[in-house]
Amino acid sequence: PYDVYADLRVNDPVSFFEPTGQWLVARHADVNALLRDRRLGRSYLHTATHEAFGREPEPEFQEPFWRVIRAGMLDVEPPVHTRLRRLVSKAFTPRMVESLRPRIRKIAAELAEGLVERGGGDLISEVAEPLPVTVIAEMLGVPERDRHLLRPWSADICGMYELNPSLEVQHTAVRAAQEFGDYLRDLARTRRDEPGDDLISALAQVVDGGDRLSEDELVGTCVLLLNAGHEATVNVTGNGWWSLFRNPDELERLRADRSLLPTAVEELLRWDTPLQMFERWVLEDIEVGGVRIPRGVEVALLFGSANRDPEAFADPDRLDVGRADNPHISFGAGIHFCLGAPLARVELIESFGALLDANLTLAEEPAWKPGFVIRGLESLRVTV
Ligand code: HEM
């Protein structure tokens, strides 16, 4: 998509996109400003407020999906957002995450060893997926026997966020959200009676009444943490290795100087961002880059384009693992800034670090997942 973005940034930085009826925003400064602008929101993506904007409501069959999704912090506005975010934010502070580093390093080392012993394999299914899935499942307390369910549920739910998903994809997403929600509702009830040392148990203690979590909020929060807690990390690992294979000098530079790992991870997040686009609803008329956008329409913020904007990055199309000034937008900005950014950073540093000296080479051209919003590889076969 990067050539198209370059053209948009110069010729049409704020443009109407007929097929989805959205306004596309391509420049870094505009994307950054709109993410922080409270005249735009996310909750308004959903049924209850469609009528007020004169829009068709979501189809009835999608209701079980939105019931789960709109109860999570990402899809609500303050003060509900503030309350929900505060309840879980303690578990994701840089300090808390730092205390998890030894465990994350051990998981990364075991996965890397396995891949090396087998002489290679699929980096996505053998390293990129199991690392963040194991970490977030352990944090929340999802039993090991059930963890295989998390990837498919998450992938099916994400189908709904693609541009114009087919009816089949929508039904699959609804089914997945419903099953996932039911599973977590049962698990949370068990933990409320018999708490363990995990986040679901902690959250289950604050269910019901007053300013505490309702059961829907508890389920919505856990679904969000489990999904957001691995989906993008998987794709940064895959996209990141693919980026390094295509820039062998940068890979060698990183191998020669591991102290570059933190800046390298930021650069890989920027260069081929796993979330190409996020949407907002315009709650009051706004003006962006001289274009007036009326209340009630959707804007699509093109993160992938913002991250390659020459106004924000020197030589933006060049992968530079030592890039010092890197204000990428891959974790968003404003009140919904990624809660898991510190965790994702540690996971990525440990994951790339564990495989850096393994002398990986590409075994075949990788296959991309279909879709545009979520950019990631289906598989990435490597040889050691
Ligand atoms: C929100 C990206 C990993 C949890 C976000 C947003 C972005 C993002 C762009 C904001 C969306 C918006 O404003 O509409 C990423 C990327 C990741 C990653 C690129 C990996 C490299 C994680 C992890 C967690 C997590 C590991 C674990 C808990 C969340 C949550 C929110 C969020 C809970 C919602 C925050 C809120 O609404 O206040 N993420 N994320 N993310 N992310 Fe992440």
Give structural notes.
With 384 residues, the chain is α+β, with helices and mostly antiparallel strands. Helices cover 50% and strands 10% of the residues. The protein is built from 17 helices and twelve strands. The strands form four sheets. A five-stranded mixed β-sheet has the order 1-2-8-5-3, with helices on both faces. A three-stranded antiparallel β-sheet has the order 4-12-9. α10 (167-193) crosses α12 (215-228), α13 (231-246) packs across α17 and α15 packs across α17. The radius of gyration is 21 Å and the shape is globular. The two termini are 31 Å apart. The model has no long low-confidence stretch (mean pLDDT 93). The site of protoporphyrin IX containing FE has 23 residues, from α12, α13 and α17.
What are the SSEs and their pairings?
Elements: H1 2-11, E1 14-17, E2 22-25, H2 28-36, E3 40-41, H3 47-50, H4 63-69, H5 80-89, H6 94-117, E4 120-122, H7 123-128, H8 130-140, H9 150-158, H10 167-193, H11 199-204, H12 215-228, H13 231-246, H14 248-256, H15 261-271, E5 277-282, E6 286-288, E7 291-293, E8 298-302, H16 303-306, H17 341-355, E9 361-362, E10 367-368, E11 377-379, E12 381-383
Parallel strand pairs: 2-8
Antiparallel strand pairs: 1-2, 3-5, 4-12, 5-8, 6-7, 9-12, 10-11
Bound molecules: protoporphyrin IX containing FE.
Protoporphyrin IX containing FE (HEM) binds next to helix 12, helix 13 and helix 17.
